Amino acid sequence: MPKPGIHPKWYGEAKVICNGEVVTTVGSTRPEIHVEVWSGNHPFYTGTQKIIDTEGRVDRFLRKYGMLEAEDEQAADAQEK
């Protein structure tokens, strides 16, 4: 039996609210839980996830810091030999 007066109130049917809509109920110490993202609107779970072009980012980084030209020159020197 819990000690009286030291435990928070338990809400067995606490509402989870996303964008003004009740999306589910859970047990919690708060009567309402406001969230921005949940599995029903997260891109990974809904299949609308975008693929990030990491290769373009790497090339842009190498060009920005002058490393791409150095690699191209080394490759050209290796082909000449």
From TrEMBL:
Keywords: Ribonucleoprotein, Ribosomal protein, RNA-binding, rRNA-binding. One of its GO terms (cellular component) is ribosome. Coiled coil: none annotated. Pfam families: Ribosomal_L31 (PF01197). GO terms for molecular function: rRNA binding; structural constituent of ribosome. One of its GO terms (biological process) is translation. The keyword Ribosomal protein applies. Belongs to the bacterial ribosomal protein bL31 family. Type A subfamily. Binds the 23S rRNA. This is Large ribosomal subunit protein bL31. It comes from Gomphosphaeria aponina SAG 52.96 = DSM 107014. The lineage of its organism: Bacteria, Bacillati, Cyanobacteriota, Cyanophyceae, Oscillatoriophycideae. The gene is rpmE.
